[in-house]
Amino acid sequence: MRIIKKGYIYQLTFMPRSFPVNAYIIEEKNSLTLIDTALPYSYKGILSAAEKIGKPIERIILTHAHDDHIGALKKLKEMLPSVKLYISQRDNRLLQGDISLDAGEANLPIRGGVPKSPIVPADILLNDGDQVESLLSISAPGHTPGLMAFLDTRDNALVVGDALQVRGGIAVAGDIKIMFPFPGWATWNKQLSITSARKLLGFQPSLLACGHGRMIENPEEFMKKAITRAQNKIDKIKS
To answer: Which of 150, 157, 158, 236 is the most exposed place for a label (fewest CB within 10 A)?
Structure first.
């Protein structure tokens, strides 16, 4: 496991050289918030990192319900029973094994590894604009129907799950990068992903923290180029 700290955020990367999967710890005044739980064995590294920081994990927030983001969830809830679990109202359905679509959603298959049956119940369901300690919840669907990003209102660091990726080159979800195609393959709605990436760009993030790849400081120009490239690819297919 590799740990990188920037401001209030700790990036915990599992398998950093081959298949990097990130979880994030956000440091609050007296507690910690864990965003995503990475892989099934990752609970050991997550708990070790929290112990070194010296504050308790009081909240687990999931950006979305894919298996490389919820892998250690069950084990962590068993070991930390008082911890509150947060997920978006929409992706809670995926977490409980329900892959049905809502009326009005694009009739596209939900991709990627999602639970076939409920794992653990969520404690708090999030909607766009909800505040969790220092974090602002931002609805950013596309990769999954209910993906959420989280903006640290103290310094504008932005954790986006798989709304974008950095491993293999920065890209919007659904824009497949040959060197690391997995987030692209697991994306539900490519056009909606672009719309959400534009929304996230509007928050003028100081730091971009994705589910796969290193953190990027001052990411706006990188995000703009990724959005343009993704849209151009879709437009080319349509023409």
So the answer is: 236
Q: Is 219 helix (H, G, I), strand (E, B) or coil?
A: coil
Exposed e or buried b per residue across 183-222, where buried means at least 16 C-beta atoms within 10 angstroms of its C-beta: bbebbbbbebbbebbebbbeeebbbbbbbbbbbbeebeee
Using DSSP's 3-state secondary structure scheme, residue 40 falls into: helix
Q: Which domains does the chain show, CATH number per domain?
A: 2-238 (3.60.15.10)
What is the mean pLDDT of the segment spanning 100-129?
95
How far apart, in whole angstroms, are the C-alpha atoms of residue 139 and residue 126? Answer: 9
Each residue's pLDDT tens digit, 168-225: 999 999 999 999 999 999 999 999 999 999 999 999 999 999 999 999 999 999 999 9
Nearest to 152 by CA among 54, 5, 28: 28
